[in-house]
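Hi V.,

You were right to ask for the full record rather than a summary. Here it is.
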Amino acid sequence: MARAERRGAAENGRSGRRGQTECGRAEDEGSERSGSSESKRTSGPLAVSVVACTKRRAYMEALLRNYGRQRYAAKELIVILNGDDLRLEAYVKAAAPYKNVRVVAMPASASLGHCLNVGARLARHPLVAKFDDDDYYGPGYLSESVRVLRATGADIVGKRAHYMYLAGRKLLLHRYYDRANRYVDQVQGATLLVRRQVFERIGFRELNRGECVRFCADARASGCKIYAGSPWDFIAMRRPLSRDHTWVVSDKRLMTRHAKTLRVKDIRRFVCRS
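Predicted structure:
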């Protein structure tokens, strides 16, 4: 059963920089929000809190399917509604078939960065993942992300090399193709997986655009390590009208900036390799 909650714009979301001290390394299993700051090592799965902010009703089902599709079982979903025209009750009803889902309503005046901070603060698990509502996350996406974080000991992991589908041209792009499986300055915002302890030092800026780029920059300035995994199990979906996206950019620019163009019949089968 999904849980519902309404919050005001003044909710403390830990926005902005929280200091420049060295990033703390989380243990394999962080403490729950019970007052204890100690962590315990475990060989079991690291649980993940998935945070998804949305202001577009048309992507409600896609958002929930991305979460439900994940083979990784140790997870919860926190949906942040960032639009006054979104009905909390509709999302709660749609989320009912899925396990461990909470729906939180924020006013449209709240910035995307602020909403992400609220989601991170509500997270119950030691890892926090950011999902976008209009992209595609393959079944092995979370499993690979957690595996990469464990193997590298990084504070933040994600994808720099990634696939992007241009729906208007029916083309698949392989962007930043030489930046996989390496330490990087930043990863794609839709692919962030962050140790929860990072949010004790930094947060997302009060921005509606560029908040993830600034988050990565602030994280590196505070001593955090960022690692980019493989490009698999994720597709950034670009619709023909870029004005409908948070990042407004032309298809031509995307095709000519560090990208290879591919013609693939079944894009989802192609990217789901893990």
